[in-house]
Amino acid sequence: MNPVFKIFILPIIAAELSSCSSFGKGVIEAVMEKQQAVDTRLCEVWGKSFSGIMPFLDHQKGKMKVLMVHGVGDHLPGYSTQFIEKLAKELELPVMSAQYKNITLTDPLDATKNLGNLRINRLLSRDRSKELMFYELTWSFITAKQKEVLAYDNSGEYSFRRAEINDLMKKFSNDTGPDPIIYLGDSREEILVSFTQSFCWMTKSNWENLPNDVTQVCSFNENSVTTNIHNDQYAFISHSLGSRIAIDGMQRIASLLDNRNDHKDNSAQAIELVDALKDKEIPIYMMSNQLPMLQLGRKLPDVSNQKAAYCQPQGERYDQRMLAKTSIIAFSDPNDLLSYAVPRGFVEKYLDSRLCIDVTNININVATIFDAFGLGKLANPINAHIGYDTDDRVIALIAKGIGNNMASSIVNDRCRWIDTID
Q1: How far apart are CA 170 and CA 168, in angstroms?
Q2: How many whole angstroms separate alpha carbon 127 and alpha carbon 112?
Q3: What is the distance of C-alpha 228 from the center of its chain?
Q4: Cα three-residue angle 312-316-317, rounded to 5 degrees
Q5: Cα–Cα nearest to 53, from 130, 151, 142
Q6: Fewest beta carbons less than 10 Å away: which of 15, 69, 123, 292?
């Protein structure tokens, strides 16, 4: 039985079956196994069809490049390994680079700063005709030092006074709770620089040109960058706070490039870079989407409620858009206490119109729902928060989308698609 699930359900069961524990244990485990055998978990897709990553793997001129941005909590490089392996299997990319490439990110204005790690992996088909470059950003180095102020609370001096289960939950809270607060403070800029540097490294042409085991700044000034942005395809995969970082990061990149237009010595190249981004469609696959919650306390964007003006070819400000299209595919488990669907009107009011955002909401149970012996149905909220990147349906949707002839059978069989029209 899942040990985390026991945390939530066994105290209830114990009260009911205290007089016949050995018999009760057998009954409980038998019922759990039966409930797990038939997977009836929810999977509902609300929005337009999308293609996923698969169609861009054999792009003749460029490469498919994916950046993963983690959410709250301390992470170590390699946190995406299980996800990468499952994604590679779904995409039929069984060949992997023998070694990762690691770049320690730093600030172009202060090379003494450690802004996290970028780990790059290369996935290929057997005949080498298809290729995916996967970039994993670990930014939690930036917030780890500030969270040391709570380290005393995890020490034996305090933790032994708590009940065992409460102590486990308190340590989880101390690890994850501070990050959104820290992001609203001075560290926000450093995290966004980390994202910007990661995207810059994505614009480099190929595997052979990427450095390894270095602390190095990336620059958009190289002439090849514009050509690569035109030719390559990009996608972001994010979790919880990572989704806000991806949105804010793209706005930051666009603003930096726009500001360079004001300097005559860089204007020609800057204009080319800005124009290249204006033609890109970049999907963001958001797991445990938290955009509505992370909007609390933030100012409205400088440009909002003007999507038609910026995103329609006939719009009066069409030439001022940041991207041709930003597709948000928002995965939310209704039993994830920290996840929210993107409601109607949210994008228009709270997100920058120049990103030209379309939203597909995916309501999906990544945690199993159990019948708690007549006491009601229950799903482990921790599993519901962290289970997205190992769920086969989530991975299949990212890999091959829905509503197209390449969609995976597990998606066609297990997910209900509700198409939407404007």
Answers
A1: 6
A2: 43
A3: 23
A4: 80
A5: 130
A6: 15
